[in-house]
Amino acid sequence: MRWLNVITPYLSQIINIIIQPFSDDPDPDTTPVDERVLTHNQEHQLASNRQDGSDPWGLEDEIVPEVDEQDNNESLLLVRVPLPKKRKLCFYIFYSIFVILYVVFFLLIAYAYPLKPVCTMEDLKLPGYNKTASANMSEEMKKSVYVNFTCNNRNRLISASYDQLSIVIYYYLPEDLESYYLLASIMAPGFYLNKLKQKIVKVHMPAPGLPSLLKLGKPLTEVGFRVNLEFGVRFGCRAPCELWTPGFEPWVDEILHHIPELQPLLHNSYSSRILCNRLATKDNLDKRGMELQSLDCQLCYSRAETLDHIVAACSTTRMVSAYLSRCVKWWPVNETFAQSIWTAIYISNGERDTREKDVKKVIGAAFFWTIYGGFATARCSMV
Known about the structure:
Subcellular location: Membrane
Protein name: Reverse transcriptase zinc-binding domain-containing protein
Structural class: alpha+beta
Keywords: Membrane, Transmembrane, Transmembrane helix
GO biological process, one term: defense response to other organism
Organism: Centaurea solstitialis
């Protein structure tokens, strides 16, 4: 609060200077006194000394003019002592800097505040509703719903990471608006959106309620649909989730054999997932809303109960692929070009050593963030 004590006298003086021309009766107590005018007590002392004939101050030859008391009071009221120029200049400079910083801070907060994400539904298709077009379709396609969403990140400074999308579709009849019937529901995987970017999300949903809708025998124009979309958004994502391509299976025996430094990282990650109950088992995937028709995972297309899938797939594997796509120039994003890290490393024998070093750094960083996030979740659950 020192700066407030320093600025307060300056502000009071400036306010007095501004208000004084508009005031009729200025306060004599606040009027500055001219030091060159003798006070009444000093005049009285000098007069008494002259009457006695004594001159203790040596003022015999000095002529002291007589000052009328009324004129003295008028002169005191009209005296104004201006502020020093340097003090004025410093005050205006500091005040201007403070105002500018305040305005810049306010505009920056208003400009950089994460705006709410926008997600709109563009299209909803029921292939099995058209009998003529669905003659050559499989039974799975006939009992499915296809939904297209457009997600837009309106923030100019911060990227966004969408968590899993919870999509639930109901249908209702116009004559009974209070009754809704479940058509389909699914938990779609999340994705990454850079600043001021938009993405079209296409979701294929199995529709267990489609047969009951077909039994009504009404055209789609007489049926209403309601779509509930729930999702969470995290701003400032570290890894580009849009580059997570399913199908990569980097955790093979060859990599662990040629890169032994990954063994302690793999062990630590497995231990943290056991403590946090975050292993990608079939039961945990079912709890997350991922319905597995078989033991093949829908995200990484591998066996859901294998050790490879439990430790890394559906989590760290996709993060490793994202880090490689972002940080390493030689990493192929195309799934058909390289099905694993092993084939990508040995696609050129001349760069084998450098590529192994790059892969070790990337995998180490991915494991670090996986372990860190796992223990943070464990602490929150314990509290």
